[in-house]
Specification:
Elements (H helix, E strand, L loop, with lengths): L29 E3 L1 H6 L5 E6 L10 H13 L8 E5 L3 H13 L2 E7 L4 H9 L3 E5 L11 H11 L12 H17 L4 E7 L4 H13 L4 E7 L33 E5 L1 H15 L5 H16 L5 E6 L13 H6 L10 H6 L16 H10 L4 E6 L8 E7 H10 L18 E3 L4 H7 L5 E6 L2 E7 H14 L1
Parallel strand pairs: 2-9, 3-4, 4-5, 6-7, 6-9, 7-8, 12-13
Antiparallel strand pairs: 1-2, 10-11, 13-14
Helix pairs in contact: 2-3, 2-6, 6-7, 8-9
Bound molecules: pyridoxal-5'-phosphate.
Pyridoxal-5'-phosphate (PLP) binds next to helix 7.
């Protein structure tokens, strides 16, 4: 059920001492979500597989170990060898732990978008971290894909490639599945997990289905990811959802794929952490949100298991930071806030935007028709729910650009656009909007993490005017 104990030292016989930290990977506990079940009136038994008790704090310790053991067996990793993987997260930690015990070097390649704590964490385990610019296309020699490729060749390294490596799902088939079967006495009826590489869901499902073909397998997916039919972007939950189908994706195993919004994922993570005293992250919140739906519809004797991949500790500056949450429009800081100002507006369409490939001429037409002096530039339209903000243009910039070069008129707007507008959450205070509009001509209002509307000084003025008239 786990990776057989390698204990060879006879002095450990009769003790409960693990031979090394590697032997502590897997065999994670299963706990009932009792408080959440009460709060949600859940008739069935809702339980959580706590992957946080793995030595690296996540489910990724399992595939990390399995991939390294398989590489050793296949002769791809020799004593003192090097592992190169483009990863910023949990898989890196798992690989670093196993590498430390088995005497390998680790080089992790990541982009400069990654939070500095993640770099520090991997370095703390003794790994080398190479940081590459995020703002270059994948084919650029300095992109993180290309750097990882080059280093793998130069260092004659082993590249686990968790998205393609069959030992990733095998790790869960060999351990997570059997553990759940045993922990529930063979009574598990539903398994819910988020999908990234799909290793966890597919591997666990393979084992469980072989034991009982009636067990329901449910994938939780961030709204916007391809697994639940999206384009792959944009969403804020980390570690799950993709813009391509990894090797372990196997739709024939999944009964249902439930899309969950960033807002529901984050708010559920916060609620579970408080109600149960179990600190979980955004992807755990997403999985629990899906599991709550499943468990509500299940029968009283059903046992629903949700896999929690990692801890909320890695997300303190995001999911658990009220200011961050409010700025994305996930939390309300006041009653009469930015949202109330928008409510005061006439019949301006909710959000006006142009596509990056539209011409400057089309952009100006749109701006004039709607009498706006700036407009965001967004990709992925329609449906607007998937819009990804790329930048913005304003009439001053456009006037300047066309004056100096009239050919700009027929160029794509993305060639002349400026930076994105500063953002404010729909639930943030009016005084913050006033303060921000001191230096910015317009703000992009976010609700549930998504752009909702553009707010200008004149919007604030008409709101204040209306309020003082009532007042
Ligand atoms: C935080 C987090 N949650 C969930 C997952 C999804 O697990 P899997 O890659 O096995 O599908 C990952 C994967 O990276 C993750 O990091």
């Amino acid at each position: 059920m786990a990776w057989g104990n390698e204990a060879t030292d006879s002095r450990l016989h009769g003790t409960n001492i693990a031979e090394s930290v590697i032997d502590l990977i897997g065999r994670t506990p299963l706990v009932r979500l009792k408080r959440i079940s009460e709060l949600e009136n859940i008739p069935s038994v809702l339980t959580m597989k706590m992957e946080t008790t793995n030595p690296g704090g996540s489910s990724k310790d399992r595939p990390a170990l399995e991939m390294i053991l398989a590489a050793e067996a296949d002769g791809l990793l020799k004593p003192g060898g090097t592992i190169v993987e483009p990863t910023s997260g949990n898989t890196g930690v798992g690989l670093a732990i196993v590498a430390a015990q088995r005497g390998y070097n680790c080089v992790f390649v990541m982009t400069d978008k990654v939070a500095p704590e993640k770099v520090s964490l991997l370095r703390a385990y003794g790994a080398e971290v190479v940081v590459c610019p995020v703002a270059v296309p994948p084919e650029d020699p300095t992109s993180y894909y290309k750097v990882a490729e080059r280093l793998t060749i130069e260092l004659e390294a082993f590249r686990p490639n968790q998205y393609q490596n069959p030992n990733n799902p095998i790790a869960h088939e060999r351990t997570t599945g059997p553990e759940l079967w045993e922990q529930t006495g063979g009574r598990i009826t539903h398994f819910v997990a988020g999908a990234g590489t799909c290793g966890s869901i597919t591997g666990t499902a393979r084992f469980l289905r072989a034991k009982n073909p009636n067990i329901k397998i449910i994938a939780a997916d961030p709204e916007g990811s391809v697994f639940s039919g999206g384009s792959g972007r944009p969403y804020l939950v980390e570690g799950v959802g993709e813009d391509f189908f990894p090797a372990a994706w196997d739709a024939s195993l999944y009964d249902e794929i439930i899309p969950i919004s960033d807002e529901e994922s984050f708010l559920t993570a916060r609620r579970v952490s408080r109600a149960e005293g179990i600190l979980i992250g955004g992807s755990g919140g997403m999985a629990v949100a899906a599991a709550i739906r499943v468990a509500k519809a299940a029968e009283p004797n059903d046992i629903v298991v949700v896999l929690n991949p990692d801890s909320g500790r890695g997300y303190l500056s995001r999911v658990f930071d009220d200011a961050w949450m409010a700025n994305f429009g996930f939390l309300k800081e006041c009653e009469q806030c930015v949202g109330a100002m928008l409510g005061h507006r006439g019949n301006t369409p909710e959000l006006l935007y142009v596509n990056p490939t539209q011409t400057v001429r089309e952009t100006i037409d749109l701006m004039q028709t709607h009498e706006v002096s700036q407009i965001p530039v967004c990709k992925n339209t329609p449906p607007f729910a998937n819009a990804e903000v790329s930048g913005a243009v304003d009439e001053l910039e456009l006037m300047d650009a066309i004056f100096h070069n009239p050919a700009v008129m027929e160029m794509q707007v993305q060639t002349v656009m400026g930076p994105k507008l500063p953002t404010i959450g729909v639930g943030q205070k009016v005084e913050l909007a006033v303060q921000m509009l001191d230096s910015a001509a317009a703000l992009l209002v976010l609700s549930g993490g998504r752009p909702l509307s553009v707010m200008t000084r004149s919007d604030v003025l008409s709101y204040l005017q209306a309020v003082s008239a009532y007042g």
